[in-house]
Amino acid sequence: MESLSIAVLGAGNAGTTLANTIAVNGHDVRLWTVEDDVAEDMRSNRENTKYLPGIGLRENVRICGLEESLDGAGFIVLAVPSTVVRAMCGQIKPFLKHYQVLINVAKGIEEDTLMLMSDVIADAVGEDNHIIVISGPMIANELARGIPTAVAIAGTDEKAQNLIQKSFSTDFFKLYKNEDMVGVELGGSLKNIIAIAAGISDGLGYGSNTKSALITRGLAEISHLGAAMGGRPLTFSGLSGLGDLYTTCTSKHSRNRRFGENLGMGMNVEEARKKVEQVVEGIFATKVGYQLGKKHGIDLPITNILYGISHEGRTDVRAEMSDFMQGFNEVHF
Amino acid sequence: MESLSIAVLGAGNAGTTLANTIAVNGHDVRLWTVEDDVAEDMRSNRENTKYLPGIGLRENVRICGLEESLDGAGFIVLAVPSTVVRAMCGQIKPFLKHYQVLINVAKGIEEDTLMLMSDVIADAVGEDNHIIVISGPMIANELARGIPTAVAIAGTDEKAQNLIQKSFSTDFFKLYKNEDMVGVELGGSLKNIIAIAAGISDGLGYGSNTKSALITRGLAEISHLGAAMGGRPLTFSGLSGLGDLYTTCTSKHSRNRRFGENLGMGMNVEEARKKVEQVVEGIFATKVGYQLGKKHGIDLPITNILYGISHEGRTDVRAEMSDFMQGFNEVHF
User: Fold this and answer.
1) DSSP secondary structure letter of residue A237
2) pLDDT tens digits for A224-242?
3) Of the four listed, A105, A233, A236, B295, which is most buried by Cβ atoms within 10 Å?
4) For residue A24, what is the DSSP state?
């Protein structure tokens, strides 16, 4: 296997895990972070004690400055929060060579522009560089410990995808190609809407029947929207859609599910959010989903109900959710 | 709403729950069971203390003999185990009128013939009667308690489907039409294969990443087989596929998931089955899935691995499951 030079930008939980996983196959991995203390910690202790405690960094993960990490790298992994992707691209643009392939793992849609991350990246760096996205059920702490993990990979260059698939895959990490970049990106971005709905069902004390129905119909809703935006419906039933959604809806740690559970137990939006203590991405995703539904003329019953609850001050969550049983059209797959 | 006469054959957990749910809208519901003591219990106590304790029967659920239950009924609900469906049909055939619509809720495929339940029914009663199937995430104990539940309905007569949809639906029970009867039936029959795989992942101590990947790829596998058998791929992402699967894979009570968990923890097939104490349908479903894959020429990697473990004596479950990460083709939705 050809040894590749790969820059990983962002050394949070996901970035550090990816750097260490890619390093299994012996590549030259350069890890950069904006946080100087985290970089210093990793240099001194060969561990990211802040974001990935307990996992030693492999020898061939080098902690680098930004220019140093980019210099001669064939691949640049963007592992920063989605809200930072545009700024990050602006920062690396002056150093970027046309042959460097950008690999995005940030999930999200840009506020105001409603652009997918791949479009944000293309908009920020220009048209010369290929863009690849990786998305799927990838809880970093599990992958970091060698728990078998499978994700979807999509992008604008098939040769690059093939090389990444071959070069990144290990015994416990497997990448599956998908031709539908829009679908792969959308699934990871919109799944948190459904996770909130599933959480509300939990909080209301509803059972497995209700939660299954919400997840199934929520996924259908996202598939309809995704198809209108150019994605393939079946992509949403794949690793980057259903796979990621399953993880989110069953995890006790999912902030979005917990936010919904708090709502179902009778808290208002502000209380429910405060109790979660961290950013609840699904609140923003709900707004984006609502706006995208309007823009593309797609009926999104669950998204609309959640929008009413989280952005329009509707407080009777039980009554709103019972609309879910009544308000749909009668035919469904 | 027109008041209908509906026979429900079988007063187990599911049959009793369905009879009581249909009765919400005031129909004339006749409930029959082969177990005389259960019939007597329900007549005396207005409760099925053996199979649905704690739920009072509605006034308009009448406990009837077989002929009495069928006489003048427009709809006949078959709520007996799938292994009994053919015999049950033989038993009612002498009394059957051509206008009576059979509604099947038993999930399964017939051993030896590999026939779907709707085909078994048509084979047993002849071609004169329309057949409807109802399938989805419907844990009876939840539905019986009024927990919101949504299921799929498909069949050979659209007018009958419309009438059932309208007449059976309540505030907490909703039926969604699906044009794909083969897909609706198959999903409920084959989901238990995936549930075993998900259980093995749990038993091996793998994480949410692995389980999500198994469920997603397992569903894809069933969709491929289903398409070859005449179903629509998206049906398997609907209530009767993914919806039912989600319930099975997350439920602590799922016998199939528990059987898999026991295998993952190191028991052999016999020990794992004994510990579950009840019939593990997924063992049989695995054999059927394996045979159907061969018959239709569809590659079913997870099913094949499970067949090796449960029917061919392969005992190194961890090694077999690691094939799941290695042996697939590289492109996937």
Assistant:
1) G
2) 999 999 999 989 999 999 9
3) A236
4) G
Q: Does B244 touch chain A (CB under 8 A)?
A: yes
Q: How far is B114 from B112, CA to CA, in rounded Å?
A: 6
Q: How close B36 gets to chain A, by Cα (Å)?
A: 31
- Exposed/middle/buried for residue A229 (C-beta within 10 Å: 0-12, 13-18, 19+): middle
Tell whether the torsion through CA atoms of A152, A154, A158 and A160 is positive or negative. negative
Measure the CA–CA gap between A290 and A176, rounded to whole angstroms: 30
Q: Is B207 on the interface with A (CB under 8 A)?
A: yes
Catalogue the E-assigned strands of A100-142. Answer: 101-104, 131-135
Contacts of A148 in chain B (CB under 8 A): 206, 209-210, 213, 322, 324-325
Interface contact flag, A217 B239, Cβ < 8 Å: yes
Distance between CA atoms of residues A281 and A83, nearest Å: 11
Nearest residue to A315 (alpha-carbon basis) of A264, A261, A256: A264
How do B5-9 and A75-78 pair as beta strands?
unpaired
Q: Which of residues 65-94 of A touch B (CB under 8 A)?
A: none
**Rounded CA separation B225/B301 (Å):** 12
Residue B330: pLDDT over 50 = no
Contact list in B for residue A178 (CB cut-off 8 A) is: 331-333
Residues A201 and A261: beta-carbon distance below 8 Å: no
Q: What is the mean pLDDT of residues B289-302?
A: 94
pLDDT tens digit string along B34-44? 999 999 999 99
Whether the CB of B187 is below 8 Å from some CB of chain A: the reply is no
Q: How many CB atoms lie within 10 A of CB B306?
A: 31
Q: How far apart are CA B257 and CA B188, in angstroms?
A: 15
In this predicted complex, what is the ipTM? 0.90
* Mean pLDDT value across chain A: 93
In degrees and rounded to multiples of 5, residue B131 shows phi and psi of -125, 135
- In angstroms, what separates the C-alpha of B171 from chain A's closest C-alpha? 7
Q: Give counts: helices (H), strands (E), chain A.
A: 15, 8
Exposed, middle or buried by CB within 10 Å (0-12, 13-18, 19+), for B312? Answer: exposed
Name the B residues in 267-306 with CB < 8 Å from any A CB: none
Catalytic residues of B: 191
What pLDDT digit, counting tens, does each position of B154-185 carry?
A: 999 999 999 999 999 999 999 999 999 999 99
- Cβ contacts of A274 within 8 Å, gap of 6 or more: none
State the Cα angle at A8 between A6 and A9, rounded to 5°. Answer: 140
Long-range CB pairs of A154-158 (<8 Å, 24+ gap) are A154/A178, A154/A179, A154/A180, A154/A181, A154/A183, A154/A184, A154/A185, A155/A101, A155/A103, A155/A118, A155/A130, A155/A131, A155/A181, A156/A118, A156/A130, A156/A131, A156/A132, A156/A181, A157/A101, A157/A130, A157/A132
Chain B residues within 8 A of A244 when measuring between CB atoms:
212
Nearest beta carbon to residue A332 from set B142, B216, B238 = B238
Q: Is A202 on the interface with B (CB under 8 A)?
A: no
Contact assessment for residue B241 and residue A211, using Cβ atoms and an 8 Å cutoff: no
**Catalytic member of A93, A97, A191, A287:** A191
Do residues A10 and A33 make contact, with C-beta atoms less than 8 angstroms apart? yes
pTM value is 0.88
**How far apart are the CA of A91 and the nearest CA of chain B, in angstroms?**
33
Q: Are B42 and B56 in contact (CB under 8 A)?
A: no
